[in-house]
Amino acid sequence: MNSPKSQRGGGALYLLVAVFLLGVASLVFAMSSTSVQPDFALFTVSYLFLLGITQVGVVISAILRIVEADWGKPWYRLAELSTLAYFPFAIVGFLLIVNYARDDLFSWWLNAPPEEHLSSFLNFNWLLIRDLGGLLLFYGLAAIYTRKSLRVDMATGNAASSIDHDEVESQLYKLSPVVILAFVICNTFIAWDFAMMLIPHWHSSVFPIHYWFGNLYAGSAALIAITAVMQRTDGGAHFGQYQIKSLGMLVTGFMLIWLYMFWAQFFVIWFGNLPQETEPLWRQMDGHYAPYFWSMIAGCFLLPFAALIFATVKRSVFAMCIVAIAINTGVWINKYLMVLPALSPDNRPFEHWIDIVLALGLLAGFLATLIILARRLPVYCSWEMNRQS
Asked: What residues contact residue 160 under an 8 Å CB cut-off, 6+ apart?
């Protein structure tokens, strides 16, 4: 007989699958309708947000392995599985966006007159090659990385006894910088093509770095959701106050780096005072988009900074969940301000039910895939947790 917890988990999975199918049906309906059209620019924002925080899962594992942070080991497996769970949505979502939204997103260089003399970099075929190549490179390495770790926990009998744990640990340690480098390459291409190239002739050497750390910031904060879920399923025996406080310190570090990169990006544009550089910035900060901009600042910096300076907050799962929600809301708005102000002077998010259902469907599909993977595979990296120093 199924336990109440497993029954609730099964109900949650069925609900997520239903929401995902509803999102797919709504997309098909909207694309075939003449009266209702999906806002693919807004869908791009949700796609980029989930792409960033899920890719960070395997990257955080790689970072913590490099620095030999024993406190992070309970998060390894589910963080890595979250990366793989988004893989099909990353590829399909990218293809949908570039096929159905390219005339809106990339109109200024796709339809540029011959006298514009654009760089060969501004070419649709090259966009496909670099972005798809970056995604496949990253997810291929993430799959290899996760498989190496899973192989030890899933081995039984003679196969288990023949595995050299030291050798596997050494392989993961050596592969970790490669995974991080693939993340940087992939996210640099995404930052170029889905933010910088939306604005005519905008260039920045700082913006991709700001984009990486925005994802790292939101993804590390999202790890607290794993803690909350595991406390309700298995009691969270592996997540004590030391683990929560250490994660809080990591989130605080990423918060300060994000703020520094944000300021570095702002300062260069402001000091240069070039119209093509400053106009998109003022469009985000003033007028219609000003409330969104200051909500982003509050969610990404003001509220987390005010909370995380207190050790008691960093030791509380509930308080950290509130901080994580604020951070991820702020980073979503940050992605929104990267895309929409460049395309529309007065966009309002989620005004139509189609846009709400599409965003919820994408999130539900990812969560349903993660639950399925977590049911079929070990959710803790037990062999590494048992080797804690």
From this structure: 152
Measured between alpha carbons, how far is 300 from 296 in angstroms, rounded to an integer? 6
Q: What is the DSSP letter of 325?
A: H
3-state secondary structure of 205: coil
Those residues whose C-beta lies under 8 Å from the C-beta of residue 6, and which sit 6 or more positions away, are none
Q: 386 is written with which tokens?
A: 């048992």
Does 74 have pLDDT greater than 80?
A: yes
Residue 385 near residue 169, CB atoms below 8 Å:
no
pTM of the entire predicted model = 0.92
Q: Tens of pLDDT along 89-134?
A: 999 999 999 998 888 888 888 877 777 767 777 888 889 999 999 9
| Confidence label for 2 from pLDDT (cuts 50, 70 and 90) | very low
Dihedral class, residue 39 (left if φ above 0, else alpha if ψ from -120 to 50, else beta): beta
Exposure string (b/e) for 370-386, b if CB count within 10 Å is 16 or more? Answer: bbebbeebbbbbebbee
Which amino acid does the sequence have at 202?
A: W
Model confidence at 373, pLDDT cuts 50, 70, 90, reads very high
CA dihedral 305, 322, 341, 52 (to 10 degrees): 90
pLDDT of residue 307 exceeding 50, the answer is yes
Which residues does 377 contact at the CB level (< 8 Å), separation at least 6?
77, 81, 150, 154
Question: Which two three-digit tokens encode residue 103?
Answer: 């005339």
Whether the CA torsion 206, 362, 62, 167 is positive or negative: it is negative
Cβ neighbors of 104 (< 8 A, separation 6 or more) are: 40, 41, 343
Tokens read off for 63: 């970072």
Q: What totals of helices (H) and strands (E) does the chain contain, helices first?
A: 18, 0
pLDDT for res 9: 59
By the 8 A CB rule, do 135 and 91 touch?
A: yes
- Does 357 or 275 have the greater pLDDT score? 357
